[in-house]
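Translate sequence into structure tokens.
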Amino acid sequence: MAFDVARARRETPGTTRVAHLNNAGAALPPSSVTETVIAHLRLEAAIGGYEAAAAAAEQIEGTYDAIARLIGCRMDEIAVTENATRAWDMAFYAIPLRPGDRILTGRAEYASNVIAFLQVARRTGAVVEVVDDDEHGQLCIADLRRRLQGQGARSGEVKLIAITHVPTQGGLVNPAEEVGALAHEAGVFFLLDACQSVGQLPLDVQRIGCDFLSATGRKYLRGPRGTGFLYARSSVLDHVEPPFLDLHAATWTAPEHYEIQPGARRFESWETNYAAKIGLGVAADYALSWGLDAIEARITALAGRLRDRLRAVDGVRVHDQGRRRCGIVTFTVDGTSAREVQQRLAEARINTSVSYASSARFDLPRRGLPELVRASVHYYNTEEELDRLINALPACR
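Result follows.
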């Protein structure tokens, strides 16, 4: 069936103002999300914040249900957080690490995650080890297997595999299911950063086999900024403890004792933005109403067309890798900085972004790329908007 782009654009007011090709930064929300958030804020103003939360209890629980359906898990395996970084951090810092324990990650890993690896390595004596890429530029499963079998550069025990599903600086989709199978076989924790993939690709945590999955609301899911969530497999909760607790995550049972919540909500904090939290659930339901398979097909087709059109322009180089590719398209223009290209496109009301080497130091410098222009399409974008981007590119010099 043809994707109803006209309906998607009617329900996305921002499409009348800009060609928004920065969906891997923050997508345009549908009207239903915006109106839901505003309605709850008005309710808070009318009757009080605590009272509004009590009145919206069913909607709040509905957010957990929608996210659980979105990624194929139980409601009690979901924690809603203020952003994807907090979700990822709560999982990572909960994993017990000792001197010599090995953390395996990929060359495409994002800066925030690597900074956390390095901090914990300094504190604990754990070792960060980077798995090689394969010939397609994605994480090499054969090299990961060798390292898990003790044939890597380090001799300590592998305690954690932590990778990014869709890296910020390119269109590749890392082979998460193959990683999950190896992690399960080796009995190793597997943390998947799905910040760029949730909302644009079908995700099933049972098929992927991850123990933890972190994601944001603002990107392809089209939810409010300042929202994220963490999936935590129930079978691993007895083996980890949140890095910090409050009276929501745990109960103070006696003057010198407390009990941690039984489910994933142990990773949450008591204070939260309820309007945004409810809006996140509406965004998840909205994505489900379109169908993730249909969303992926539309996004992948648009991105493929954009890559083809960019390659046809003299002096433009596309830098995406991976056997499987998604909606993120990265490129450079000879003789013009990525920042200049972005500014030129912005003047034509075309939103894109720039990925810098400082966000991906295991990857971009070794490819000789200090920066890239990133155009990330969504299902509400059109072929005409792709043409506008091509026509607005600065001439090579």
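Note: The radius of gyration is 21 Å.
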